[in-house]
Here is the input.
Amino acid sequence: MTGLEIRAAVAGDLPAIVGMLADDPLGARRESPDDLGPYVTALERLSTDPNQHLVVAVREERVVGTLQLTVVPGLSRRGSTRSIIEGVRVHTDERGSGLGTRLIEWAIGTSRQEGCHLVQLTSDNTRTDAHRFYERLGFTASHVGFKLSL
Here is the structure.
């Protein structure tokens, strides 16, 4: 992956990030690329929390991927810290290039540096291609997840 930089997201990256979040059937129903206000507020909150890492992958000054990594201290598993990977997106033009693997490797490496003993993520039941991708990278579908919209 030559010419690729993974760095913290900044406000100027938001249109590209939100565009990638909205670029699938699920995201198209829940994201609002035409109204960046809520995303600006969210980025401000994320940027001040040391346990949050919202990053972008940039190639030739173009945002081509993103993910959020959250570090969660805990009591279970003998007081283990874990990380949660969320919002993994790769620009349509970059799919199949290895960029998704590079982003997940970054998240795993950062999790190790942060002292995490477990990396976890969820993926919508309908994202079967994503499930195969995560399994290829060593993740196991070990739990059933539940959500409650508020």
